[in-house]
Amino acid sequence: MRAQGPTYDLILVGSSFAASFFLRKFLALRPAARVLVLERGAEVTHADHGRFAGRHNAAAAGAFVNSTPEKRWLFRLALGGTSNLWSACTPRLTPEDFELRRRYGVAADWPLAYDDLERYYGEAEEIMAVSGPQRGGPWPRSRPYPQPPHRLSDPDMRLKAAAPSLWCEQPCARPTRPTRQRPACCATGSCPQCPVDSKFTVMNELRTLYAAGGVELRLGAHVREVEHTGGVAGGVRWTEDGREQRARGDVVAIGANAIFNPHLLIRSGLDGPEVGRGLVEQAGIEATVELDGVDGFGGSTLVTAIGYPLHDGPHRKTRAAALIESHNTPIFLRNERGRWRQRLRVKVIFEDLRQPANRVTLDPGDPDRPRVTFASRSAYTLAGIASLPDALPRALAALPIEKVTIAAAPNPTEGHVQCTTPMGDDPGTSVVDRDQRHHRVRNLLVLGASVFPTCPPGNPSLTLSALSLRAAERLLA
Question: How far apart are CA 246 and CA 236, in angstroms?
Answer without folding.
Answer: 6
